[in-house]
Every structure is written in structure tokens, then in C-alpha cells.
Amino acid sequence: MASLGPAPARAEYWNRKTETLPRAELAKWQWRKLRRALAHAQESPFWRERLPGSIASLDDYVARVPLLYKTDLIAAQQVAPPYGTLPSTDPALGIRYHQTSGTSGHPPMRTFDTARDWTWAVDMWCTALYGAGVRSGQQGMVAFGYGLFMGFWGMHYAMERMGCTVVPSGAMDSRTRIRLIVDQGIEVLGCTPTYALRLIETAQEMGIDLTSESKLKIVVTGAEPRPESTTRAIEKGFGARVYDFAGMTELATVFMFECPSLRGSCHILETGVIEEVLHPETRRPVGYGEQGVRVMTALGREGLQVFRYWTDDLVVKRPWSDCGCGRTWDLYEGGIMGRRDDMRKIRGVSVTPAMVEDVVRGFEEVSEFQTVLRTVRGLDTIIVRVEPRPTAGSDPSGICELISTEMKRQIGIRPEVELAGAGSLPRFEVKAARFHDERSG
Amino acid sequence: MTNGRAELSAGQERQLRECYATLLDLAGSCEVPAVNAAARMAVAELHAALEGQALAFDYYSHRWIGAPVAENGREPE
To answer: What is the pTM of this model?
Structure first.
């Protein structure tokens, strides 16, 4: 049998053709795909009723198709669980099932993917991973639960497809994963930012210096908004480059990835999605550089389609030309900056979990933290509980005042900061829940 | 094989399209379960490759609803 040899490694793009399409051609191509997707959506009772007829252009589509909210999807599923009136293909064609975590208070969103859907979803992951520098022959580990949560399933399959060796670490504890990272010479790791920090903490407890004892080069983090200070802490702990990715169960795959050529900015995979950014209140489009809510149209999935989906993700779009990599795909500056439904007003100041995290992660003495919003003597108050590292010294109490002062400086509100005992605060693998609003009403 | 431009030649594009057409036909007609399953997966893979090259994006699986394949490998009467 003839040997195929290693896959090409020098090309910069997974698909140069579609990653560098001139913008005008990209828009035409998106419109052609959208037309097909809209026609296919007539197979879905939900979409047949909701979509207007004879959509003539992308502008017409944006003007006439109503925004879709998660409550709409959940309501459509509740009509006849598990999928209700949503499917555009017979669910019997599905080859895999996933659902959302339901942490936002909604019932879980249930999804299936056909062979075509899943292959497309994995190829989207390949595009993103290749862009981040993953190549055939590398050793990879995906550190998540491999359960119903879609999370990093796509990364596992994508690395297989790219010719990497993947260690499935689903049921392992953190110590076993650290051992494998070192012993197997893992070069590419995928996990949430929260769990990356947990792995670093575990390695320190084991007396392992990952910067010198592991071969990690690329850490792909996703599934949570995370501030730059968290990225820096992960990179320092691993001695590897961190790349921010984001995907959605409602899409089946990733829709953006951080580009090596422009730190902190993420290219939108515009061959698979059409992304609008709308003002959170007026619902009108905002321009480049202005913060708004991401509204997604999925072009690739046939089983469960979404058109103009209000994601609640807060983003700032930048033009593709800001990045020097050659891709013609627009960017999200800073990735997902937070979620609109996570934003809280505290004494007139808008506060998100990522804003608090950005301050706290700036203190290396802190290993874990928790934020509680509470009404104290009639006033909205932020209480931040911090757990110092064992290396923080015999009297870590001084850190409370420092954190409080820094939060006042950066966010504009002074919290009450309390010390928590070692190991007393919860650790998370996915979807960290560090922000608790206990105010009445 | 390895080059910085990494674009399909006209000959490779033709080969890709021919493979796709052949496998699509096989996936819709072959009643041997193992071959049918392999062809359908291969069609999905090739469709992703064609889409990545901006060559095609019009394949939907519902074409196959009700198509083969019974347990005995024969289409139900």
C-alpha cells in the first residue's frame, strides 16, 4: 500500500480558498448558502410558520426575519419533547445527541446532529484549530467530561481528523490528567479557562512545574467569557500560548477563534455563520468598535436550524483588515466580553462576572474566589470571598484591602472582601458559577 | 504536495467533484448496509471538503429519508 505521508503542514489555512475570499464574494456566498438554508427550513413546522416568504436579499432577510430568543426555542421544544416543532430533518437521521447545561435557568436545549451536521461541525473546529497552529502528528488532550454538554467534543474529533493523537480524559481526575500531560508529552490541551487554572493549581500541589516538565504549546480555552488577566495566568502556569475559542450548542460547533496574528481578537468563521451585532436596547445594528449583542444565523446545520438568534453574548466587532493574517473574516475584539443576562446594576454601576474576575486574577496570591451580591443595610453590596494560595504567606489579610481598592479603581465600586479557608470554595470543570445574586427582588 | 498556497489544481477539483458524485450515487442506491454506511459518511466528508473550497453546499440528508436500507439489506417493499 502506498504511504500518504504526513498531512501538509506549511500552509497557513485549513481552506485558503474560503478563508481569504474577498469580502464581496464572501457576502455573495453567504447569501447563496442562506437561501438554501431558508429553503430547507420549510421542512420545519416551526420555521415554516415563522419565516416570511420571498426573501430577496441579505438586507431583506435582516429586515423581515424576527429575532429568535432562547425562550422561543425552548417553547417550540416543549410542544412535543424532545425536539418539538424545530427539526428540519427527521431526527432519526441524527447520529448524536447533546443538550445545554440549563445553568441559565431555562430547561435544557436539546439537539441532534446528522452525519452531515457533525462532519461540518468538526470541519469548523479543524479550521479554528489549524488557524491556532495545531498540526498533524501532535499529541492532544481534551480535558472535559465527555458527557451531554457539547463543549469540546468537536475538538476531539477535529484533532483525530487532522491526524493528531488525542487522549480522551473524560472520567479522569485532575492529578491523573496532569500525569498524562507530562508522561504523554501533550502539546495541545483543550478545556475551560476555569479548569485550566485548576490544573495549574493541581500541578503545583503535585510539585510539578508544567512550564519545564510538560511539552504544552497550545491551550485552547472556551465555553466561558474570560478576562485577559486569566489568560495571562494560564499562560504563565503552563508556559504555553492560550487561544480563545467560542461555540454554541445551538450551532453545534465553534463560531470564532483567536488568531495568532492579533492577540486577543477572534476571527468569526463567516463561511458557517452570519453574525450581526445589535444594540442591547434598540435592537438596531451597531458599527465596528461598538459593543452590542451577538445575533447568529447558522448556515451549516440541517437538523436544527437557527436564524437571527439573540445570543445575549456581548461583543465588539472589528473589520478583518485589522488583522494581518490574510483572512477576510471579521473579528471580535476581546472575544466574548460577557453576557448581557449576567450584567448586574450595583449602585448604578454595570458589573459583569468577567469584570470582577479581571481584577481578582490580577492577584497571584488568590487561587479561587466567589462573588456574592447582597443587600446590606438597604444597599446593594458586592462581597468577594478570596481563597489565598498556601504560598501567600502567614498573614494574607492585607490582600483584601488591596483587592477592594483595585476594584474601586477599575470598576468604580468598592466591595467587601473576605478571606475563605483553603479549599473551601468550589472548583469547576465547566461553566463556573462564581457569581451569585442573593438580593431580594 | 506541501506548499504555502495550498490550493486545488483544476485536475484535483475535477477528481473531488467526480468522487463526490460517485459516492452520492452509491449512498442513494447501494443496499449493502456496510457499503451504504461508508458511502454516506464519505459523502459527508467530501461535502465538507467541497464546501471548504466554495464549490458546493447544497447537500441535505433528507434526500435519503425512506431510502434503503432494511435489515436484510433490501429496500422494504
So the answer is: 0.84
